[in-house]
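Final report, Chapter 2: Outcomes

The project's central promise was a pipeline that accepts a single protein chain and returns its three-dimensional structure in a standardized token representation, suitable for archiving and comparison. That pipeline is now operational. To close this chapter, we reproduce one record exactly as it appears in the project archive, with the input sequence first and the structure output second.
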Amino acid sequence: MNIKDVFAGLQEKINSDPAKMAGIAATYQFCLSGEGGGDYNVVFSDGNGQVKESLADDANITIKMEVVDFIDLANGKLDAMSAFMTGRLKVEGDMSLAMRLQGLLG
């Protein structure tokens, strides 16, 4: 599985269950380093979300990780809290948005 597959799967989850992110109007920026990495953003507007491979102009939250760690996180092989506590997951911005995203990924 590569990072494009992970974000395609995320888009499917957003489309299939918009209630999980209902009430959220925010832009999530993902800066993923390492082989196969890149910059992705997800713009949410009341449950609807659009994944894009680019840098966002005005992200509400930025999540920085190594690609391999993000793939493990998305597949349930890495716990978000332990990744955050060990520095493998860095969050800049609104932490409450990070908690909402964890519910969508899980």
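Archive annotation: The chain has a mean pLDDT of 91.
This record, like all others produced under the grant, will remain available to the consortium after the project formally closes.
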